[in-house]
Design a protein that fits this description.
Rossmann fold; 7 helices; 10% strand; 184 residues; four-stranded parallel sheet
């Protein structure tokens, strides 16, 4: 069986931390345990490319290899290494299956069982949420810090923030965002 490996990291910090090498080590151990072999040309990697886009050189070469029937199967550690959006994960898995090249996720091999398909959808949604949650919290934090500083100013002046509203009140973040910022 001609197996291909796909690995990806998106940030320079992950590249320097060698997490891509850790992914490759895990995949190679699995390949050895199964008695398969992997040609160096069948190791596809994307160092420093976001999983939010489908335009990645390693992924493009992998898709070409599958279409040309150069490989028989693809092994990836987790679905979020393949793509950070569930829609992209589903599209890629289906694309590889249509050309007779099944994709296997090392952490949780999938089947056509409805439970496995549901789990893949949930994992894809969580991966997408994680990406946007990190981004969303970064946007909320400056405004939450400003709001907290404003409250402190009113308190030091001996005035209650409830009775003396500031013009900044209209930009007040939600209670949840305020609780998040107070922990920083």
């Amino acid at each position: 069986m001609r197996v291909a490996l796909y690995v990806r990291v998106s940030t320079a910090a992950q590249v320097q931390a060698q997490t891509i090498e850790q992914q490759l080590d895990r995949l190679r151990q699995h390949v050895a345990a199964e008695g398969w072999s992997v040609a160096d040309a069948h190791v596809f990697r994307d160092d420093g490319y976001s999983g939010a886009t489908l335009t990645r050189p390693g992924l493009d070469r992998l898709r070409d290899a599958a279409r040309e029937r150069v490989i028989d199967a693809v092994l990836v550690t987790t679905p979020d290494r393949l793509a950070r959006k569930y829609v992209h994960q589903a599209l890629l898995v289906e694309e590889f299956e249509q050309v007779g090249c099944p994709m296997t996720f090392l952490d949780r091999p999938m089947s056509q069982d409805p439970h496995d398909q549901l789990l893949l959808q949930i994992r894809g949604a969580v991966a997408e949420y994680e990406r946007y949650a990190d981004f969303g919290i970064a946007l909320i934090m400056p405004s939450a810090r400003l709001c907290r500083a404003e409250r402190e100013t009113w308190r030091r002046m001996g005035l209650s923030n409830r009775h003396n509203r500031s013009p900044l009140d209209r930009h007040r973040p939600s209670r949840k965002a305020s609780r998040l910022s107070e922990g920083l």
